[in-house]
């Protein structure tokens, strides 16, 4: 399958650079198992799901991971903390006029917190902070909002680029699980009142989610690595739902990758699992866990668009995207959403 198979024209004005006033006020495009689509509001989810169905949500929290600083010579640098190894050492992306070498010292904030470059791991720098990393991020960090917003993080992002159910002890993502941004307390209460269950998994989203695919043949693409945890409680709720004939609805591509990775790690059968995943889901993949997917509209030629195409089909999704563009749906992280049913095989 070629990268160009997942291209489409997207007018710039359809990119949602700011959230709507209300989280759940987004539109929802439902693509059913036959590939037919229908326009809804996100709050219609209560009617589109059945009592006993299970929503699988990612409870990670986004770090204020972007730091601006300077070199010892005074040159500007930007450090994006991708993954913390311990409270002082992290794997980071560093933007600078030229690539810092091992031993280089960088300084963050007015009190000049020292960051020492120790070396490289693949495309990331291994750095040591002179003070606890989370404290430095809290003082000087900015939320790493997506590059396609074409703006700096603002006060509104502090609340709205986090889910309402994030777990503060799981502060480790550099991007939000954006399909979950549509849920507010009122909608969650209505879903619960109908008997729709929810369970939580964790996948700490890395900056690699925004990296373009650079191979013409998508099968040659190597996914970035992300840490995830699928606990026993989630596995049991999912298994019980399957046993009684209910559907498992993953909220977002990150929750999807987490549960499918857990199944893949156990030979295709879902079981509790914690580890790093590089799972790459594209058309031809056979889903082990997920029946339906709630997701946002994704970038052309992205691995996220390939994942949703695997659940339905490339043809179904590209037709639905054409409809979404024609109907002026809002795209990407702060945009509208889709509910996609697994296509009949």
UniProtKB/TrEMBL annotation:
<dbReference type="GO" id="GO:0051075">
    <property type="term" value="F:S-adenosylmethionine:tRNA ribosyltransferase-isomerase activity"/>
</dbReference>
<protein>
    <recommendedName>
        <fullName>S-adenosylmethionine:tRNA ribosyltransferase-isomerase</fullName>
        <ecNumber>2.4.99.17</ecNumber>
    </recommendedName>
</protein>
<comment type="subunit">
    <text>Monomer.</text>
</comment>
<keyword id="KW-0671">Queuosine biosynthesis</keyword>
<keyword id="KW-0808">Transferase</keyword>
<dbReference type="InterPro" id="IPR003699">
    <property type="entry name" value="QueA"/>
</dbReference>
<comment type="function">
    <text>Transfers and isomerizes the ribose moiety from AdoMet to the 7-aminomethyl group of 7-deazaguanine (preQ1-tRNA) to give epoxyqueuosine (oQ-tRNA).</text>
</comment>
<dbReference type="GO" id="GO:0005737">
    <property type="term" value="C:cytoplasm"/>
</dbReference>
<dbReference type="InterPro" id="IPR042118">
    <property type="entry name" value="QueA_dom1"/>
</dbReference>
<comment type="pathway">
    <text>tRNA modification; tRNA-queuosine biosynthesis.</text>
</comment>
<comment type="similarity">
    <text>Belongs to the QueA family.</text>
</comment>
<keyword id="KW-0963">Cytoplasm</keyword>
<dbReference type="GO" id="GO:0008616">
    <property type="term" value="P:tRNA queuosine(34) biosynthetic process"/>
</dbReference>
<keyword id="KW-0413">Isomerase</keyword>
<dbReference type="InterPro" id="IPR036100">
    <property type="entry name" value="QueA_sf"/>
</dbReference>
<keyword id="KW-0949">S-adenosyl-L-methionine</keyword>
<dbReference type="InterPro" id="IPR042119">
    <property type="entry name" value="QueA_dom2"/>
</dbReference>
<dbReference type="Pfam" id="PF02547">
    <property type="entry name" value="Queuosine_synth"/>
</dbReference>
């Amino acid at each position: 399958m070629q990268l160009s198979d997942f291209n489409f024209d997207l007018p710039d004005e359809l990119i949602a650079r700011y959230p709507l006033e209300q989280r759940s006020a987004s539109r929802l495009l439902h693509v059913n198992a036959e590939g037919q689509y229908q326009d809804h509001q996100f709050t219609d989810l209560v009617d589109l799901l059945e009592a006993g169905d299970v929503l699988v949500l990612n409870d990670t929290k986004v770090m204020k991971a972007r730091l601006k600083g300077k070199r010892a010579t005074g040159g500007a640098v930007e450090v994006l903390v991708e993954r913390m190894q311990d409270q002082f050492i992290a794997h980071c992306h560093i933007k600078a006029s030229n690539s810092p070498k091992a031993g280089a010292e960088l300084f963050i904030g007015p009190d000049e917190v020292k960051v020492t470059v120790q070396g490289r791991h693949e495309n990331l720098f291994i750095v040591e902070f002179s003070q606890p990393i989370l404290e430095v991020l809290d003082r000087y960090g900015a939320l790493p909002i997506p590059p396609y917003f074409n703006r700096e993080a603002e006060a509104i992002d502090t609340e709205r680029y986090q889910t309402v159910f994030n777990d503060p002890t799981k502060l480790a993502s550099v991007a939000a699980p954006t399909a979950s941004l549509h849920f507010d307390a009122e909608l969650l209460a209505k879903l619960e009142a109908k008997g729709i269950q929810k369970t939580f998994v964790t996948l700490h989203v890395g900056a690699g989610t925004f990296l373009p695919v650079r191979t013409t043949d998508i099968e040659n693409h190597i996914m970035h690595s992300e840490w995830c945890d699928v606990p026993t409680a989630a596995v049991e709720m999912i298994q019980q739902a399957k046993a009684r004939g209910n559907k498992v609805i993953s909220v977002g591509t990150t929750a999807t990758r987490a549960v499918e990775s857990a199944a893949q790690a156990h030979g295709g059968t879902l079981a509790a699992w914690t580890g790093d995943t590089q799972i790459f889901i594209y058309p031809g993949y056979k889903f082990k866990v997920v029946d339906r997917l709630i997701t946002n509209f994704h970038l052309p030629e992205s691995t996220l668009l390939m994942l949703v195409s695997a659940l339905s089909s490339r043809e179904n999704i590209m037709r639905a995207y054409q409809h979404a563009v024609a109907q002026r749906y809002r795209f990407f992280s702060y945009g509208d959403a889709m509910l996609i049913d697994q296509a009949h095989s």
